[in-house]
């Protein structure tokens, strides 16, 4: 193996694949980066067995010149060495030792046997199951993944449920206290149900270059693959049946309050300082009281109390209700909605309420559901 | 107590004094902020008993209008509440409850009894012992404080020794493996020796507005006070005798290598990735070998080895020596020096070497000393 490479293209690839490399791993070889050099490309791979990232740098004779093909597993120090190199770098492999030369510096890195690097199940990258515009993909994840559970008690709730039937894509996440759902009409067509770790999806959108499309390959029951330009991202799926959630979402309401999203968010963020101050049982809870006007309030015995009026645009139905909820959940939901105005849909102080955009766009429907908190009426 | 205040001036003061407030404190009242309102000023104070910050906002009738004087201790939530307020805020104290009104929000914060707030020893702020230009003060601290010890085994070494004799100010810090010293001729005159916690000095320069002068008040044997515009910073001094260090610094050398500081620094940072890779005994050690040319190298059994040639400007004296040292220490020292070229002054592979600017400015002399590491010659 011998090649010349421009620092910039190599740094990009190494930075991406090193994101999944753990400092400690039960398999020491997974602390390294697999480098495979052919006449077509330099392929870099990093993995923690749950997530695997590959990045290909094409051999174009300008950024990369290959004199001899080969492969090795490089120790993670390669990332910092390359980052601090000069613009032109030469890699040479001799036995298991890779020599990195740049400017007046020369580094001999002990390598590991590439034959010992774990083989991952093959995913067929011929025909994508689904194709998303980069920003659209990011948008769907940002609107749902935050609502997934971060607890191990019900592993399936740590995932985002992707339910694709015909031309309808539905993404759902819930931690059983709140639920986020987006429904989108696509031009593709498929019939697939799978649960993807929410953490992996959040990592994926940080990693991806959103100027490229995101192609999804779902023909393997254990793994899901994403291709984003030169980068391939593999994640294990979560096994188990995702709970039926459609019945949880109420469809008729006693009141619908239309409200400016940013005003509501700003009020919640202010009340959060009081609501979250105590470490008692009612941690993070505020009360919304609607009666001619809307007022958010919170009372914590130790810290004090706060109240803030929230001007609303319109109110249909019942005028005169009170509901308590976790402020953090409402903040998360309103941040995800991103629209100008939202509808606050109320049924009963003991039943979930909804936050949704006042005007759905034709091909995207989104719902944020939050369960109320029972409080002793004061 | 009742006053109107512009958000911007209050946020500045609260942000400064809250820097020393601990989330947990043995004295719960120290988790709060003392607010004293007179007809002249709003004075805010935060403290963790070792460090105390006060900030005064003058009553100018524009940014601040006082209707009623008073004092209270506010819970730390006040900082976030004020940060999220509108531009105009009204504070009203009733009993121990402070009401903060801004826009459509109203917050009642439970307060604590200001009479229970600890009284700190009075420091006379009439006549400063020393006055520094803000940037000069920062410069002196940045060139020395990093070399202080962070271990509790010898508390006095966690401080910076300030030795002022006549018009000569000397600052020294050492962790017994390296030493930094600046000597400065001042226009003031004093005769004081004291040991100031390095951490406090580093906090002070982050806190200070360097457009203002820094006045130092050293008439109290236990406390040192700094005044920087509207901000007063008090820190406890470290008790105990600082070791005599002047004899440690060699004055005659076998070799003096003049070298471009940035080139040397860049070489050290590259070699650091290899030197610091192993967690063995020789952690972080590199070797400088001079013989016609200068070469930095490091060898770690597990990771590999690196070498990098460092072009030097000139070499006086012995040409042919090798010395091993902790790369991190050399990096820290070179960063502190900030000049174009440095002198690497060598005596013996077992004796400390010096790094100093090739040309001292007339009123500032600086020395960075590093002890070599003994290694088995390979």
UniProtKB/TrEMBL annotation, chains A, B:
Limits of the DNA polymerase III beta sliding clamp N-terminal domain: 1-120
GO molecular function: 3'-5' exonuclease activity; DNA binding; DNA-directed DNA polymerase activity
A GO-annotated cellular component: cytoplasm
Domain named DNA polymerase III beta sliding clamp central: residues: 133-244
Superkingdom in the source lineage: Bacteria
InterPro entries from the UniProt entry: DNA_clamp_sf, DNA_polIII_beta, DNA_polIII_beta_C, DNA_polIII_beta_cen, DNA_polIII_beta_N
Major location category of this protein: cytoplasm
Compartment(s): Cytoplasm
Domain (DNA polymerase III beta sliding clamp C-terminal): residue spans on this chain: 247-372
Keywords, comma-separated and alphabetical: Cytoplasm, DNA replication, DNA-binding, DNA-directed DNA polymerase, Nucleotidyltransferase, Transferase
Gene Ontology biological-process entries: DNA strand elongation involved in DNA replication
Stated family: Belongs to the beta sliding clamp family.
Entry-linked PANTHER family: BETA SLIDING CLAMP, DNA POLYMERASE III SUBUNIT BETA
Protein name: Beta sliding clamp
Organism (species): Terrihalobacillus insolitus
């Amino acid at each position: 193996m011998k090649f010349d490479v421009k620092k910039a293209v190599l740094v990009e690839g190494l930075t991406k694949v090193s994101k999944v490399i753990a400092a400690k791993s039960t398999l020491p070889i997974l602390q390294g980066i697999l480098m495979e050099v052919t006449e077509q490309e330099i392929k870099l791979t990093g993995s923690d067995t749950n997530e695997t990232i590959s990045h290909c740098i094409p051999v174009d004779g300008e950024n990369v010149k290959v004199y001899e093909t080969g492969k090795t597993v490089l120790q993670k120090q390669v990332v910092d060495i390359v980052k601090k190199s000069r613009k032109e770098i030469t890699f040479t492999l001799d036995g298991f030792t890779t020599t990195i030369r740049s400017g007046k510096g020369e580094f001999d890195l002990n390598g590991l046997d590439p034959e010992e690097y774990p083989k991952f199940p093959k995913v067929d990258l011929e025909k994508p199951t689904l194709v998303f515009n980069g920003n659209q993909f990011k948008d769907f994840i940002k609107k749902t993944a935050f609502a997934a559970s971060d607890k191990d008690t019900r592993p399936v709730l740590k995932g985002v449920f992707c339910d694709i039937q015909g031309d309808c894509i539905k993404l759902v996440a819930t931690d059983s206290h709140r639920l986020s759902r987006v429904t989108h009409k696509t031009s593709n067509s498929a019939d697939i149900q799978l649960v993807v770790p929410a953490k992996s999806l959040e990592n994926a959108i940080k990693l991806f270059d959103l100027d490229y499309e995101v192609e999804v390959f779902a023909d393997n029951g254990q793994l899901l693959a994403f291709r984003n330009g030169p980068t391939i991202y593999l994640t294990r799926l979560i096994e188990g049946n995702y709970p039926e959630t459609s019945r949880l979402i109420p469809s008729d309401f006693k009141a619908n309050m239309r409200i400016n999203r940013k005003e509501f968010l700003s009020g919640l963020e202010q009340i959060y300082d009081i609501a979250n101050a105590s470490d008692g049982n009612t941690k993070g809870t505020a009360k919304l009281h609607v009666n001619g006007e809307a007022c958010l309030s919170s009372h914590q015995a130790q810290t004090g109390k706060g109240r803030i009026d929230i001007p609303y645009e319109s109110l249909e139905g019942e005028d005169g209700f009170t509901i308590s909820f976790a402020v953090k959940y409402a903040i998360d939901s309103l941040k995800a909605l991103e629209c100008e105005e939202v509808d606050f849909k109320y049924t009963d102080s003991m039943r979930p309420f909804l936050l949704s955009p006042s005007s759905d766009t034709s091909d995207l429907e989104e719902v944020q559901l939050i369960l109320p908190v029972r409080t002793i009426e004061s």
